[in-house]
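Moderator note: this is an archived Q&A kept for reference. The question asked for a predicted structure of one protein chain; the sequence and the answer are reproduced below.
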Amino acid sequence: MLTKDLILCRNDRGRLRPLFIPVDNERFQDLAAEILAVFDAEKGPSREEIDEVAAELTAQWPNLRQARGVLKAASDLAEFSQPAELDYVGCRQEVLRTAAELLRRQSFAGEESYRSAVTARLAGNALLESGELYADLPANDRLRAFPPLTSRQLLERYNCGLVQGLLLQAASLTIDAGASSPARLRRLMRYLKFFRLLARGEQRDDGLRLTVDGPASILDQTRRYGLQLASFFPAVCGLEVWRLQAEVAWRGQTCRLELDSDCGLVGHYRHFGAYVPEEVTMFEQHFRRTAAGWKILAEPAFLGGGRGGELIFPDFSFADDSGLVVHLELFHRWHQRQLSARLEHLERNPALPLIIGIDRAACRDQELRERLEQSETLDGRTFLFRDYPTVDKTLKCLERFPKR
């Protein structure tokens, strides 16, 4: 995504208008092609070499920030080699000590004879002999992999990154899904959960409306949450029909950002399976091995019964042998405000087939802890976890529900 210094947009009386690049424009496609040519993984250029060539390319473009933005979109996709776990600093110090000692003791006819004497004295210093003495410096990292992209695809990523950069400063985000297919909506919700975001859902005549808190409304770890929200945005572009509204802090003002599916933005998320976190996979595998009488449903269902007709989007749905379905919703460190409201709703509606997992980082408040301990309704319906829930704690809550 683009950093704030690279974002190009106009403030039209409080409404932000991102300056998107026309992806079919030949001049822009030529720029993208030149930048992509720099990231040739087969040649394995260093970061320094890429930066030098790219700087020369972008300096020739009329709008320098725009060209650097396209370069940033490409750079975010590059994978560089990491230095081996060797004592680079110690080896360099040895070379410098030896070189200084030789120079004090004798004179040399020239630079080459001096270099040869140092190399001979340090025979066996593998890093010196291989020329990798400074391989641990970031400038010397080598390009290891770069995805196959067309010029158009790179420009599409730039446009998407432009919006992502703005969403880093959002106070709220509303998404109207319109007449999108149920399969696309389920996929959107999986991305929402993958990025550990919590949304309030409302069924409307024209489709589903989601309201997501923005980083500017979160008190704890706002930068990390902002990155999660911005990373989620390309999944929105995967809907057939959508409309987005956000309140964004921009240059000292609170502005509106309004976009929809007609603006031509293209998301680059294709196969959700590639993005499933390892802890989710491990949880599902462990549950299937150990949870006798219960199974995880492939697609968590939307759960009605929220406040004022609000939909609840569980992280997991489970079914037992009798056909009973129970849902699990997880609350992470930046969900304290939503957690309190959900606990209150569950206490008022104990028949709701829902259990709640709470990250300990979201449960620092002593009053909240006492509420969990003292409430008869919440007893057995909630549990605490660190980073990710365990199967054992989940099962204990599931077993509290009476069989049909």
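Archived answer notes: The longest strand covers residues 243-250.
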